[in-house]
Amino acid sequence: MARKALARKVFTKLLGLFVLLLVFHTVVMELVFSHLVEHLPDAPLPLLAREAFWSGLVALCVAIPVAAWAASGVTGRLRRVVIFARRIAEGDLSARLKESGSDELAAMEAALNQTAERLDQSFSEIESRRHELAAMLDSMQEAVVAITPAGQVRWSNAVMQRIAGMHIRAGRPLIHAVRDPELLACVRGALEQREPRVGRASSLTPGRVFDVSAVPLPSGGALAVLHDVTRIEAAEKSRRDFIANVSHELRTPLTSIQGYVETLIEEPRPDAETAREFLAIVLKNATRMNRLTEDLLALATVESPDYMLTSQPVRASLLIQDAVDSLGGMVVDSEVELVMAAAPDVLVRADADAMNQVFGNLIENALKYATGSKRICIGAELLESEVAFYVQDFGPGIASEHLSRIFERFYRVDKARSRESGGTGLGLAIVKHIVQAHGGRVWVESELGSGAKFNFTLPLIPPPAPGLAESD
């Protein structure tokens, strides 16, 4: 309606201009004929015709430039409107019309400028919200990818780009970017059936598992969200393995205790020597169960987020000496010599009671494999910013395939020997967690036939600066 009203107004103006020119021409002709009639009353008809012709020509010469000037003004302004419209269509929302006059065309120019300004503001707000949405999606821990109805990647966040690498980019088919069949099946189901689909992708990245959720978009296409559940899966597997190991470790002594007790009950008058032997076996298995329970409680304590240490400065050499003095009784009956090697006289930050437990577990572990050499060496070495303590045996050593798993719960290199010696399989796991709680690290060095050296570190307390020492 606005366009029609504007067209009517422009047409009315042009019509008025035409009427004005017609009146002008009439006035000129009237003046010419009046002049001829007054001064040349007897003029022949050809002369009157010639005068009329020249007068009309003069009027036309005056009218044409005036009409051309008026038309060029309107045409120029309309041409600027067309150029303005093209710039807006090409995306140049900063284009503006130069307003001139106070006629209807000026009102149209003002309205078009106002429309362009509102469009510019709207697109700026949309672009700002798009950047905010992209920033929020990039900050998510989940991987997100949007797919067009044709199966091409429309957009992906930073997490998805890290997972898929350079293969995923806008405009590329999703099937060329990722090859996980479960993810592709979920996306295909959301695109074709227009229903949400869920699945689990395990071949997208080696060693990682993702929960996949694909939903159709109202405007067409689909959106897939990938949640990394690798740690959850690992924790769940660890929990299942832990329960299975605990059940197995408890089942063996319980079965033995039950069998010997039932034998004693069924025997009306058991032989005293036999009864003593059976009760000794029952006691041994009960002790084993008690040790397992204590180690489970100790492991639960050191693994707890609430596990607190009373760390304080202590000399590394004093830690070694206390371990030898307090734990020497462990090796008396085994005829193994506990040797104290050199240790640096520097301060470390440690909980003395926790360190006594660490050394006790390491020495107990070394006793199982030190029967050949009859010697266990305990000492420490100064590193750049920490002190490395070690407990070394000279037994058969550990094969390389076991070194990376030796500190896992219930992991045993020689299961038969460990159970025979009463080990629970939790001692080294407890050592690892206590050392890590101190901010240290733990590892083992070993070769078959050359014994094993268990190492752990504690943070070194640097000596005070000379100026501070003097002021103190």
* Range of strand content: 5-15%
Q: What is the number of domains? A: 4
Q: Tell me the name of the CATH class of the largest domain.
A: Alpha Beta
What's the shape?
Answer: elongated
Q: What is the name of the CATH superfamily of the largest domain?
A: Histidine kinase-like ATPase, C-terminal domain
Helix fraction, binned, reads 55-70%
What's this model, at a glance?
The chain contains 14 helices and twelve strands. The chain is α+β, with helices and mostly antiparallel strands. The chain has a five-stranded antiparallel β-sheet.
Description:
With 472 residues, this protein is an alpha+beta fold. The chain folds into 4 domains: 2-121, no CATH class; 140-228, Beta-Lactamase (2-Layer Sandwich); 238-303, Orthogonal Bundle (Helix Hairpins), CATH 1.10.287; 312-459, Histidine kinase-like ATPase, C-terminal domain (Heat Shock Protein 90, 2-Layer Sandwich). The chain has 14 helices and 12 strands. The strands form 3 sheets. It has a 5-stranded antiparallel sheet. It has a 5-stranded mixed sheet with strand order 7-9-10-12-11. A two-stranded antiparallel ribbon has the order 6-8. The chain is elongated, with a radius of gyration of 48 Å. The model is unreliable at 468-472 (pLDDT under 50).
